[in-house]
Amino acid sequence: MSDIIASPSTRRLARDNDVDIEALARRLGRTTIGPEDITGKAPAPAGPGGDTAFWDVDHGQYGPVREEPMSRFAQVAAGNLAAAQALIPAVTHHDRADVSAVEAFRTALKPEAQARGVKLTALAFHVAALARCLRAFPRFNASLTPDGETLVLKDFVHIGIAVDTPHGLMVPVIRDADTKGLWQIGAEIADLAARAQARKIGPDEMGGASMTITNLGGIGGTGFTPIVNPPEVAILGITRTETITVWDGDTPRPVPMVPLDLSYDHRVINGADAARFLAHYAGLIGDPRNMLI
Fold first, then answer.
1. Residue 43 gets which letter from DSSP?
2. What is the spatial distance between Cα 225 and Cα 92, in angstroms, rounded to a whole number?
3. Confidence (pLDDT) at 264
4. CA-to-CA distance for 263 and 226, rounded, in angstroms?
């Protein structure tokens, strides 16, 4: 009796390809063999082009169900997300930023914001900070060619803003964000978000982002792992600000901190660079005067 663990279909595949499964297991130093060991190819990911037959279940046999068709928009987004998750070796780096100064600055600017008719949200500061970070760390403002052999470095900074809408997630883009002030960024965020909700965003307003921000701060959570939105090589997630106790010597001090989640394509960015990027970003948020220079 063989000690090698392999499914009947894998053993049949080995026979069809004239592969000695026992010798292969010894060569690999394993006791478990899968079909990819026989063919030398990784299994196709589930989803478009993958084998999802085992998902085809009659759920009605277990209780009442109802069906809701996926919109074409949602189907396209689902396919892109599945491909990104399957093909990009992504890592998420987590950090926090002190938002005391940002909130104080926003409070001081409220009279001017009302006079201008612009709601200056915290997201405007995040867009401004990310734009400056992308200039300081050009490898994050890049795209990898499909063959994985060339890095395209961009000499523009466009920031995508993920917007949750009734018809699915949309990502309108703020163009040349590094050349715009907080008031202009704030106005563009409000305009793009409103038109996304009304489904009045054009295709030319949704492509070509250097990097995307996905903000769950208005909903909740302490952190998450956003999926990189190709052809971008990184994405920044933001969740709800929380009060953290920081110690000044023996004195505790409550500090409002925003959790930051940076997912990145490990083929292009290494962990040390991601840590430095997010530390620089946290420094900009911690002292918004740096964004006014």
1. P
2. 6
3. 98
4. 6
Domain boundaries, the chain: 1-43, 88-291
**In this predicted structure, what is the pLDDT of residue 48?**
47
Q: Which of 200, 199, 203 is nearest to 173 (CA)?
A: 203
Query: Six-digit token pair at 181?
Result: 């002030």
| CB-based contacts of 18, cutoff 8 Å, min separation 6 | none
Output the CA angle 125-188-172, nearest 5 degrees.
100
Backbone angles phi, psi at 115, to 5 degrees: -65, -35
Contact present, 118 and 190 (Cβ < 8 Å): yes
Architecture of the 88-291 domain: 2-Layer Sandwich (3.30)
For 30, phi then psi, to 5°, come to -130, 165
Q: What are the catalytic residues?
A: 266
Phi and psi of 256, rounded to 5°? Answer: -75, 125
Alpha carbon distance 208, 174 (integer Å)? 10
The pLDDT confidence band at residue 43, using thresholds 50, 70 and 90, is low
- What is the pLDDT averaged over residues 100-105? 95
